[in-house]
Amino acid sequence: MTKIRYLDIQRMSSEDGPGLRTTIFFKGCSLACAWCHNPESIAKKFQVHWLESRCIGCGSCDNVCPNQALSRDETGVHIDRRLCAGCCTCVAACPTLALECKGIDAEPEELCRELVKDRAYFGRDGGVTLSGGEALLQDGAVELLRLLKAEGIQTAVDTCGNVFTEQLQAALPYTDILLYDLKIMNDAEHQRWTGRGNAMILRNLGVAALWAKGNGRLWIRTPIIPGATDSVENIRAIGDRINAIGGAERWELCAFNNLCNDKYKRLDIDWAFQNTPLVSKRHMEELLAVARSTRACEDIRATGALNEEE
User: Fold this and answer.
1) For residue 267, how far is the Cα from the chain centroid?
2) How far apart are CA 22 and CA 28, in angstroms?
3) N or C: which terminus of the chain carries fewer CB neighbours within 10 A?
């Protein structure tokens, strides 16, 4: 049986589709967005994090790594990412959980049993959302969706769209709501900021729109990232494309947040956006006006925290 590799299950979420939801975050993504709020979800392999606040300096992790990827000095524990194979031997040796393994493997049936426990608070509008990373990269995602639908659970899939069309088409019959990311319309800029061009994403957007014109619900989401996606030209171009294909129920402009800075530190990555402020309320209102002028769909809104002072 194909197993799913995931990071976490987040309950009582109100940001991953309608109503109250349980969101499962898959590990592994086909993009590497420079602003990613879940950098631990990009690589599919297991990754070790060190949490300084939990460490008592006991030395239990000393000399346990088979690849000598872990060392410790007066400043704390250090992980050589070039040597770490993600075996998580050091995690098992740590008595205070200061070392964490990012990644859990489970069969779709096992996950379904866990997720349906939350049906009591879903109500009429809520359900389960598959997010990531990119859930549709993993074969087990479609089976999990099928099992959830068999249990009468409303399903949503949060996708970047950069997957083979066959993968998307296999998931759609078991999906009620598709949360589809449209980040940057210019292909070269998309390549610059995400590591991949957008041709496949735009092709799959057409597939999603046709599905939505049947029985599906399509929500477009655009992250508003200062200096990367937040130009008037980009928002207008995205709106024009949504208008042209039709089928979208909602378009969300999702404000950048910088709450993930510690995640980058734990992965020993210098984050390009670590000193970037929140999007100003004035700028978001300007982008909303541009978005609405394109008549992309009936429901166009901003989400996330804004800088109210500018």
Assistant:
1) 17
2) 19
3) N
Instruction: Return the structure tokens found at 110.
Output: 């096992």
Of 70, 45, 42, the residue nearest 55 (C-alpha): 70
Judged on CB neighbours under 10 Å (0-12, 13-18, 19+), 309 is exposed
Residue 237: phi, psi to the nearest 5? Answer: -65, -40
Is the predicted pLDDT of residue 95 greater than 70, yes or no?
yes
* Neighbouring C-alpha atoms within 13 Å toward the C-beta of 191: 5
Report the 10 Å Cβ neighbour count for 221: 18
Of 297, 289, 300, nearest to 242 by C-alpha is 297
State percent of the chain over pLDDT 90.
Answer: 96
* CATH code linked to domain 47-102: 3.30.70.20
CATH architecture designation of domain 4-43+106-303: Alpha-Beta Barrel (3.20)
Domain limits, the chain: 4-43+106-303, 47-102
Give the whole-angstrom CA distance, residue 51 versus residue 130: 27
pLDDT at 1 (0 to 100): 64
Does an H or E element contain 187, and which? helix 187-194
Residue 310 has pLDDT above 70, yes or no: no
